[in-house]
Amino acid sequence: MNILKKHPIIHNLLKTLLILIGASLICALLVKFFKTYTTVAMVYLLAVVIISRYTSLYIWGTLASFLSIFMINYFFTFPYFTLNFSMDGYPATFIAMLWISFITSTLTSRYKEQMNLAQKNEQNTTALYQFNKKLLMIDDHDTLIKVTVDFLESISGHPVIFAEPDQTTQTRIFSKQPMIDNEGVHFPVLYNNQLLGSICLKNPSPKEVTTEDITFLNLALAQVSLAMERQRLSSEQQTIMLQSEKEKMRSNLLRAISHDLRTPLTCILGSCDTLKTQNDSLTPYQKTQLLENISNDSNWLIHMVENLLTVTRITNGETQLSTSYEAVEEIISEVISRVKSHYPEVAFDVLVPGDFLMVPMDATLIEQVLLNLIENAILHANSTGNLKICVQKDSPNALFEISDNGTGIDENAVNALFDNQTSDYVNRSDASRGMGIGLSICKTIINAHHGSIWAKNHTPPQTGASFIFTLPLED
Amino acid sequence: MQTRITILIIEDEPSITNFIETTLTANNYKTLLAYTGKEALSMLTSHCPDLVLLDLGLPDMDGMEILTKLRSWSKIPVIVVSARTNEHDKVAALDNGADDYIIKPFGTSELLARIRTALRHSHLMATQNDAIDENYHYEDLEIDFKQMTVSLSGQEIHLTQIEFKLLSLLAKNAGRVLTYDYLIQEIWGPFDNTSNNQKLRVNMANIRRKIEKNPADPHYIFTQVGVGYKIKSTV
User: Fold this and answer.
1) Relative to the CA of B116, which of A16, A47, A73, A294 has its CA 20 to 30 Å away?
2) Chain A within 8 Å of B15 (Cβ-Cβ)?
3) What is the ipTM of this complex?
4) Looking at the complex, does the CB of residue A350 fall below 8 Å from at least one CB of chain B?
């Protein structure tokens, strides 16, 4: 059977001959038992129709109609076993018979072709539908391309390559028309006449690619381009949303800060004016007081500007965070030396792990967090004892804790402390000026490092609060 | 009368020049002013000041350019004064030959202290160029460069060869920040181009553990994160 399947010509020829022999035998039996010659032509006609139906090309039907004419003439027309077309009336009969069988066979073949085509179309439509359904469920670009390539490979049976226009490393041909070169057949993936990519079917023999295939591929690729466009739009929308989120955060922060900047600026400006205009009438003590105010508020402004600078370092998003492995003890020691230059009277208890601990971080930002937290404890907590700074390895994180024994945090504010929403609470007490901003900057920084930050009051009888943040040990 | 020390202020912002000049004059220094890079270069050659305060952002050229030009013929101490807070800028200035780096805004006492340190250094360099391997001694820490020993409160401390090299390099430049790149090049040689400074950091951590009571609250060796290390000046 394998040989038959491999050689369709032999297969069809055998079929044709077997059916004709069968028809001849039936005719012979009919003639022998019923002595009727009229049915012979009918039987052969039937044979021709059957042959047309069950062979793959209509040449077999035509061949069968010729053969049956000769067989009728040879076997079943007087004189038997000779070919004689000159008898009265016979030529007309035979020509009519030939005509009828010829038309039937072509009609049957055409019907079969139509049926095959319809079947194929239906298959293609189903495949396209399935493919389309799959495309709709995909969210990322790489999977989309993988599914497309898999689909086209299963449909065409050839290796398929998908290339994008920006892949400059590969020298692929990007034409807006399908084209064939020695590598294979290239199809463009177009959306709005814009080239999104190119599909290459590797090495099909030129005969195999029919117009239907091209139409089908174009249809499938149109779906792909639609899906790609949809994806591009949705990712664009996502970035816009992220950006607007960031923009919102930034403008909130800026609003809060510029509000806070006004107070010290007013104080500085006022003090300067007083010194300039009423210099003679002021006592030395008053002058010192005014100058003291100016210097205090300037210091506070410097601190705020540093925070602002820090924010500009992260406004471009997490991707811009340039982390490197830093030794925790070096960070802590630098922060402490910076704090000491501003507040020489503050004493620290520092506890770092005995083992050398390296944590990936943006050192400037984390120093800013520590500075803000320490300054917070110094300025707002009214702490009396030493400030405790403790770093522990708490796999997979490093845990930083700054604790004081001051007044602690208002229980109502403890949860909203880092959300920049504490201004109500902050405004009620002058001492807490700017605290909310410092903490919300801390939170932004720690979040950008994929860490977390929280505060808690110590359980009585211990007084004061702890600010704790974690940083992941792995990048 | 003792000749007063001359300081050249290269800065284009009059208000800042004003306040620095007032402070310096009040502290008995003689000041020279240059508002542009060109002016600065000509004053450097004609007046030969004892110290330069250099702002990096000048209207006509980058302060870094002046630094490079100056370093090609002179070793006078240069303190860079800048609003650029990036570690990268600090490192570039220090590697280009600046003796110190001070970030705006700064207080007058800090400025004066840094000027004193820088002058002391140039003095040391000039007078004791050969006697540089005199021992380092600050509070309890003592480094004997000839004997290659380090002791803390009289107790000898055992350092590895690399640790000792690092510590003595810092001690010979006490008070100055030595950048990561400089230290790596001095200790491991110019051909060590592994870009990470992990081994330097680990060695420094080991040194700290040996000589500091609390490595996170150091007494002798200080870190400028992202830039380098310095050891407390002896004077």
Assistant:
1) A294
2) no
3) 0.72
4) yes
